[in-house]
């Protein structure tokens, strides 16, 4: 009993540190979109130019994420984590000193480099330092802090910008990330993963494949169809989510006359709903063990809500409820999604697999705002919600296919 309690306490401490870092990365996803109205006026930018900034951020993050998984498997997760958090702090500092579009682009590149390391780092640490019975709850808490980071960013940035200006808001975000780095540094002994053990797992898996007559290499996992099905899941999921986060306030202004500041807080409600949903989703995943049913049911509900918003007939006082409900649906499916990825991940290469699979998040987040920025400039705000519904519809077949391959024992 004492050993079990000690193990649980260790799990709680580790997931707390990982979740803090993960929450800060999600916070930085939205510090730039939250300032779009201010930056648009300050530098006379179009919606397409603003959307391109987010595309740059996520394209860079996609490239870094796909490659950083190999680095995590080689040198360990901790040094890569520290570098990523430090780069996010530097990016916010760069935003705060911007004197034109070029510096905003530079800040987006730096932020993308910092953001790209988190999923390979986080999931490598979770899968190797958290005991198996606590994994669904670890995924749940990890996801909760991500959504809380999304929830905090609009309120934090808009609140500071309204009482001072946008430069002070970015500077405050930089200081906040520096504080996160300090906390992680002070607890660095808990963030050491056993690289040699993971390498031994990978070598054993390679030897087993060789004995069975199968070729194996550092890139052998790329031949697994389930890896790319998971990638597609994340691509369409984040293309819809990032587009909603970037342009929903402006779309609501044009469709329903909702003020930009109120629309920004609806994004906070979306994230808070997701945080609650992911807690329930962790419990549901642990009990039902049917991730494909959970994901498809939640996506069906969020698609219907997006189409309702696109109709233009929703009473304004109902819109906050819809955003909370959509967020709840996004949150419930997240632990099931993460469990599906773990089920198709070969031993010893978690950094590489998570790096590739979660790069779909970054590429989707790059494509979504870029596309919908043009629709917004063309005066078609309803196309935002219709397009998001279509992206979500395309997710359902991928998760059903992954689940069927997992049950059949074929990656």
Mean of all residue-level pLDDT scores: 83
User: Treating each run of at least 4 consecutive H or I residues as one helix, how many helices?
Assistant: 16
Q: Terminal Cα separation, in Å?
A: 37 Å
Largest sheet report: none
Proportion of beta-strand residues: under 5%
Q: Rg from C-alpha positions? A: 21 Å
Pattern of helices and strands: HHHHHHHHHHHHHHHH
> How many strands in all?
0
**In one word, what is the shape?**
globular
Brief descriptors of the model:
single chain, 411 residues, 16 helices
Overall description:
The mean pLDDT is 83. The longest helix is centred in the first third of the chain and has 33 residues. Helix 1 runs antiparallel to helix 8, helix 4 packs antiparallel against helix 5 and helix 10 runs antiparallel to helix 16. The protein is globular. The chain is 84% helix and 0% strand. The two termini are 37 Å apart. It is mostly helical and 411 residues long. It has 16 helices and no strands.
Write the layout of secondary structure elements.
Elements: H1 2-34, H2 36-43, H3 47-75, H4 77-96, H5 101-115, H6 118-129, H7 135-163, H8 166-186, H9 195-211, H10 225-256, H11 260-288, H12 291-311, H13 319-343, H14 350-377, H15 382-393, H16 395-407
């Amino acid at each position: 009993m004492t050993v079990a309690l000690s193990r649980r306490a260790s799990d709680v401490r580790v997931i707390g540190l990982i979740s803090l870092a993960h929450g800060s990365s999600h916070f930085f996803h939205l510090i730039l979109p939250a300032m779009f109205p201010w930056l648009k006026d300050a530098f006379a930018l179009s919606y397409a130019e603003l959307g391109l900034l987010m595309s740059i951020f996520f394209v860079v993050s996609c490239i870094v994420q796909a490659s950083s998984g190999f680095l995590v498997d080689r040198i360990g997760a901790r040094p890569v984590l520290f570098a990523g958090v430090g780069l996010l702090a530097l990016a916010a500092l760069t935003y705060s000193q911007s004197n034109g579009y070029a510096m905003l682009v530079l800040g987006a590149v730096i932020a993308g480099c910092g953001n790209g390391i988190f999923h390979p780092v986080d999931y490598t640490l979770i899968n190797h330092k958290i005991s198996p019975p606590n994994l669904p709850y670890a995924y749940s808490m990890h996801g909760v802090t991500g959504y809380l980071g999304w929830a905090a960013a609009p309120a934090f940035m808009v609140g500071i910008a309204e009482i001072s200006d946008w430069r002070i808001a970015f500077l405050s975000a930089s200081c906040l990330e520096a504080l996160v780095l300090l906390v992680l540094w002070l607890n660095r002994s808990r963030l050491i993963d056993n690289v040699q053990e993971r390498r031994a797992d990978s070598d054993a898996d390679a030897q087993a494949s060789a004995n069975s007559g199968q070729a194996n290499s550092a890139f052998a996992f790329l031949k697994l169809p389930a890896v790319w099905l998971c990638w597609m899941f994340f691509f369409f999921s984040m293309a819809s989510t990032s587009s909603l986060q970037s342009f929903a306030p402006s779309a609501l202004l044009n469709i329903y006359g909702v003020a930009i500041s109120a629309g920004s807080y609806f994004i906070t409600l979306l994230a808070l709903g997701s945080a609650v949903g992911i807690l329930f989703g962790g419990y549901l995943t642990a009990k039902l063990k049917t991730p494909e049913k959970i994901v498809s049911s939640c996506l069906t509900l969020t698609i219907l809500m997006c189409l309702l918003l696109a109709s233009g007939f929703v009473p304004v006082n109902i819109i906050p409820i819809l955003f909370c409900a959509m967020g709840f649906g996004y949150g419930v499916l997240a632990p099931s999604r993460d469990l599906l990825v773990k089920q198709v991940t070969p031993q010893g290469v978690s950094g590489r697999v998570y790096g590739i699979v979660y790069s779909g998040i970054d590429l989707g987040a790059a494509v979504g705002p870029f596309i919908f920025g043009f629709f917004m400039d063309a005066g078609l705000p309803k196309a935002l919600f219709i397009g998001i519904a279509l992206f979500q519809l395309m997710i359902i077949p991928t998760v059903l296919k992954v689940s069927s391959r997992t049950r059949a024992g074929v990656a």
